[in-house]
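Dear Dr. V.,

Thank you for agreeing to look over these. As mentioned in my earlier message, I'm a first-year student in the group and I'm still getting used to reading structure tokens, so any feedback on how I've presented them would be very welcome. I ran two proteins. I've put each sequence directly above its structure. The first is here:
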Amino acid sequence: MRSRGAAAALLLLAFLPFTVSSAARKFSVDYKTNSFLKDGESFRYISGSIHYSRIPRVYWKDRLLKMYMAGLNAIQTYVPWNFHEAIPGHYNFSGDRDLQHFLKLCHDLGLLVILRPGPYICGEWDMGGLPSWLLKKKDIILRSSDSYYITAVDKWMGKLLPIIKPYLYQNGGPIITVQVENEYGSYFACDFDYLRHLIKLYRSYLGDEVVLFTTDGAGVGYLKCGSIQGVYATVDFGPGGNVTAAFEAQRHAEPRGPLVNSEFYTGWLDHWGEPHSVTSTAVVVKSLNEMLEIGANVNMYMFIGGTNFAYWNGANTPYAPQPTSYDYDAPLTEAGDLTEKYFAIRDVIKKYRKIPEGVVPPSTPKFAYGQVTMKKLRTVTESLDILSFSGPVKSTYPLTFIDLNQSFGFMLYQTMLPVDCSKPTPLSSPLNGVHDRAYVAVDGVVAGILERDKAISINITGKAGSRLDILVENMGRVNYGKEINDFKGLVYNLTLGANILANWTMYSLSIDEAVKGGLLWDRGSLRTPKTTSVNTAPTHLSPPAFYAGSFSIPDDIPDLPQDTYIQFPDWRKGQVWINGFNLGRYWPSRGPQITLFVPAHLLSTKAPNNITVLELEASPCSSGPCVVEFTNTPVINATTRYTMPFFRGSLTQQGFF
């Protein structure tokens, strides 16, 4: 008969993530052989980036298995701080945020993990993964030794790093290396005390055995502030350039040790209003082969991009937000589908390591559910009693999102016109203080749109005392560069002619909560729009309004529901929810993305599937068919009015694009 102590010990073992003895497990840098050492043997990783925060949990295993079957022996992932601590002190590691489950899946599939826990991650993610509530201290210097910032980092890492520790390789888990910060050499602060503090913090929680590393652009100038003694320095660069020259930059910081490209770009990021980025498969595999031929370690960024659901996309400067799709022209598409690039990369990897035997999991089937008729519920201003849980806040001058404890979405600003504007009078944001897009109406009649960096003045008319409504949309915080302190809302005063507008009433809008709770459907009687046989896109603007529709999926058809894509024929710009889940932003009038990916797990065969749309500019419902459409084919590369593309300095200076 076992003692109570022995029984308790067995019970404890049952809950440990890994029960295999880890006594012999060791991962280190071998400076003598210019290699990593894994359990005493030379080791080289061929890895791919996957962001668990951009892929529904139900698809983690499918995507990871496809990566494994491509010949990868490791994956790389970020941990976005704001994804787990949206409210200070409230941590969420459940559901799609279950980091431990993701790490265990990697381990079970035989994939090692290169972990990038930040605290800053970039990644085209809102504010580079930093939580917006840090901006409560308006003069905070992010990514520095600023005491307020450091205190928050210490508290967050005090929660995160103990979660990570059991999953380190030496503890029986999959994590072989952990990155300190991210591309710090591209940031203006160049604060070595900050980096030293992070190193000490990581070591105190993770121990001295774990391999810590930094990543910077392949230029000596970036490594000057990005690398630091005691942490292994790696570089990142894309295809098409001189691989030897790029690694020479790493050799300035690390004369000996393994060559590592921590971000080898298989594609590139998109912005609204630019063509979808496409990188030649031939160019990618040529550079990949050159790196593997000289024994380098490579992480392909991205191997699968995924989706910026809800409001998680970031932005670059001059202000250019990224779309909902983060497809990245990666080897696996946004929906996890296999591509020509996937198999071409697999063929290159075959030359350098044994590919797992077996069948590669197929692309998931897609289904076109067809058109769904939408009906108007009510406008945003008609819904304030439903949407503004906290009620109106009055202030002489406008307050920001953070002032009203709001991170994402929309805020409504109201005031009265102080003077008669019988003739068109400029309503202006002279300091470019609309962050990021404002929908303007006078007494309920739309007057126009103000947009950060693009439209800082419009003409309006109205009588003194007329109500001025300004619905401000947060389009995503800057994720890269010195402007990541990105406040949202009306961040500076507006002027009407020569007058500074004052005496504001502001409403923080809890739209996601209202949609999820069915409040809009309950309170708004559906209005069937008047339609004509003319099917043309509206040329005028209408007040931001909610629309709703539903469709049923027969439960007697095998294998349904399946993944699908939703598109918005003749709609302009807005946000869409399916069964209460915020799918993301649509903006077909600007492009390049036309369809939004709808994972099958959001859909039901047991009840009608509810669609809620917030159209911000103009729906087609007054002039033609008022429908959204589900299709089985994605469109993320529609022709757009071309604007100057964004390049990071580390890439353009090295000649990789």
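The second protein is here, in the same arrangement:
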Amino acid sequence: MIGTRAGKLFMIGSICLGFGLTIERFQSLLGKGFLCLAIVFLSYTVLKNVWFELVYHHDLQVDLLMILSAAGAISIEYFSEAAILLFIFSGSEVLEDYVYRKSLKTMESLMTQIPKQASLVREDGVTVVTAIEQIEVGNRLVVKKGEQIALDGIAQQKMLIDESLLTGESRPVAKEINDVVFAGTLNIGETSTYLVRKKSSESVFSHIVELVEQASRSQSKRDKFLHQLQKSYVIGVLGVVILFIIGLIQFQQVSFAQAFYRGMILLTVASPCALIASITPAMLSAMSFGAKNGILIKNGDALEKMSQLSILFSDKTGTLTEGQFRVSDYYLENSRLLPYIVYMEQQSSHPLAQSIVSHFKGQSTLSPSQKFSVQEIAGYGIQMGDISIGNKRFVEDFLDSQDYLTKESQGTLLFVAQKEEVVGYIELVDTVRKEAKEMIQTLRHEGVEVVMLTGDRKVVASKVAEELQIKTFHAECLPEDKVSYMKQQKTGDNIVGMIGDGINDAPILANADISIAMGSGTDIAMDASDVIVTQNNLQKIGLLFKLSKYYSKITRFNILFSVGVILLLILLNLLGYLDLTQGVFFHETSTILVILNGLRLLSFE
């Protein structure tokens, strides 16, 4: 706290104030000299900030009221009162800066914990330490026991990983061959190798760090409103103070010096410092707690809206279910299509595609001359030349001489077509997430309705909805259908949320009042969301809701408390029961209390 420049100036000013108050009793002139030095040191940082905002941004800060109050006290030779005012005010500013830095500590630590170098295995087998910026996709890296993984990659051996820095989950995660490993996580097993799948600037960790930096600079709507109100408020208070001084002189026959002194008290206690500090420290504390527990909150509005949530729409695949499909059955009239199917699915990031690739990983691949451009059609499937793979909607207009489209299944069916004729199918099955039911029960208990949206068939969606006790669901949805269902509910005071993880979910995430993306989802879904659950644990959604409720409770109390203190101090001054030192003390104490109250969110349970 004292290590900052403002802290050092405060310390010097405090020493000068102590000397001034002590010596003034015996040597008036020397004492006033020390008090003037104290005023200079204690006011420097605040005055500099006020001047910068005034000159460069043409903005009147509430701190200007405190500076004018001190200047007014000096003008009527109340040097000790002016110095004490600045001492208490500057001390609270230094403390406020300290707690602000404390609330950002978790985020700042997150930003610094990523390796700058990695052990690269060259083609000749020699390992060299290389800067991560020089490492390319496809390079092979070695990570020793106790070392951090430097880049997102694919495990080449079984690995035991601590992902707590990224997800907030302390339990080690066992990685199998070909599983994805993430930059910033810790290898706690034996020395292993992995293949790089993303450059340093594209890794999940780097993406999250970038979003954390943005979040730390964000403001909620209420916070923005309070800061925008400052200019009008300052001008209004200055006008009221002038009228107050004139009124005391005219109607109560108070001397100018006495009226001016009480006017400076009013100028001090009317400053809304506590009101301005009611939200930001609490918001940053909640964000910090979230980041520590695998919940990345991008902005303060997300917290406010989450606390008012009425309906939460949820995707099914990869969100309510594991998204780790396995191929249970398949049939192709022409087995030579299989390499083409595998190649096409390799170009997609959809969980179904990844499962198909994994199931047929031993299948021979296409030669370069056989490869074509693959087009992914959101909500339907993928296409390459005259070969199509997708859901029933994608191929329902094609010739189906063998009645593949009538096949019954409790899983997910993808149909294979060639030259506009259905020639086979692939059946996949998924499992419901263990924590999904608990999340739904938690939200329902809090009065939030959960609605499932899925592009899957009705029979599959019905089975999942029944297992999770979801009353309302919509099946066979295209992306535009999901948006339409959401807009139907965005009426009146309803605050509507969405949780998803795929390309198909990006449009509805963008349209939701509060959007939540699973950390294993696509970059598009993560970019479109307000909150990212870096660990695929739906229990975090319940935790986020409770955190937002607590945040809302704390900020409402802070606002009411700070306004109440301002009104009480103004009343005491009007009645003549308050001097300048007392006014500053109670005013700044209220500011410190609302900041400390906001910091309670750092240890939310």
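From my reading of the second output: The longest strand covers residues 421-429. The chain is about 50% helix and 15% strand. Does that match how you would interpret it?

Kind regards,
E.
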